[in-house]
Amino acid sequence: MADDKNLKGLGPDDKGSGTDAWDSTQWHVVVKGDTLSKISKKYYGDPNLYMKIFEANKDILKNPDLIKVGQKLRIP
Amino acid sequence: MKSKRILVAVLCVAVAIALMSCASNKEPAAAAIKAAEDAFNAVKVEAMKYVPDKAKAVEDAITAAKGAFEKKDYDTALNGAKAIPDKVKELSAAVTAKKAELTKAWDELSAGLPKMLDAVKSRLDILSKSKKLPAGLDKPKFEGAKSGYEAAVKMWEDAKAAFTGGNMTDALAKATTVKEKAVEVMTALGMQPPAAATATKG
Q1: Distance (Å, rounded) from C-alpha A75 to C-alpha B123?
Q2: CA distance A10 to A24
Q3: Could you report the predicted ipTM of this complex, rounded to two decimals?
Q4: How many domains does chain A have?
């Protein structure tokens, strides 16, 4: 999974310079058809843990059922 | 017969002058060796710790000067010992440079490793609550990752203790092992290690 194109070690606004090279935040870029449950299943094996992802992204998500293609979500 | 006696007398005087000349360097040589030893002793402990090869070279030079002195070769002893204080200055500069290099590496690792360990802990905590592990991660691999994380945390504590105790070389070696272990665990859990942890130093 580490080579998954959705899995990024860089921040959402990263342009490849000036960022903390030790930042260990894990990211997922939302693609068409994604839901938090699907993303939860992908990273945790359990779709019911989707609230962990929602809680980690409350700054950009208001509703766990509403995510947008292209959004970069933290995966704790 | 008379000229023979004169020749012998001249030779004796010449030998005596040579011996006196050589012996006249005995005190300066002894003083120079003492000065060299004093200078070296002032930096010896740190030099042996941070730049052991260079420290050994200076120590060997002092041993050589003392050896020449023992053999009453005072000129060689004096010349050898006189060169040592400059070598000690270079040694001291090398210690300072090495300490700066190690401190920089430590500062970087001590800022970065906790982030890696926190990220791993967060993922392990969530996966521990999962009813089923994600694709690519089976139970033995997960258990291996958990024990790898625990070992990394323990070693990180050891590294910090070594640093606090003034053993920077040991602290850095342990921190580097923690970094490698954290990369291994992150990879096993399907996480992306940070760029700095996987960058190779040239």
Answers
A1: 8
A2: 8
A3: 0.82
A4: 1
Tokens at A60, concatenated: 């950009």
Determine whether the interchain pair B132/A45 forms a contact, defined as Cβ–Cβ distance below 8 Å.
yes
Q: Do B193 and A21 touch (CB under 8 A)?
A: no
Domain annotation covers residue A19:
no
CA distance B197 to A2: 14
A65 domain residue, yes or no: yes
Residue B112 sits at the chain A interface (C-beta within 8 Å): yes
Q: How many residues does chain B have?
A: 202
Tell me the whole-structure pTM to 2 decimals: 0.78
Residues of A in contact with B190 (CB under 8 A): 1-2, 4, 7, 43
In a domain, A42, yes or no: yes
A70: in domain:
yes
Q: Which residue of B has its CA nearest to A2?
A: B190
Task: Tell me the C-alpha distance between B52 and B49, whole Å.
Answer: 6
Q: Which domain holds residue A55?
A: 26-74
CATH number of the domain at A67, please.
Answer: 3.10.350.10
Q: What is the spatial distance between Cα B111 and Cα B160, in angstroms, rounded to a whole number? A: 12
**Nearest CA distance, A66 vs chain B (angstrom):** 22
Q: How confident is the prediction along chain B (202 residues), in pLDDT tens digits per residue?
A: 566 765 565 555 555 555 555 568 999 999 999 999 999 999 999 999 999 999 999 999 999 999 999 999 999 999 999 999 999 999 999 999 999 999 999 999 999 999 999 999 999 999 999 999 999 999 999 999 999 999 999 999 999 999 999 999 999 999 999 999 999 999 999 999 999 999 865 4
Residue numbers in B near A4 (CB within 8 A): 190
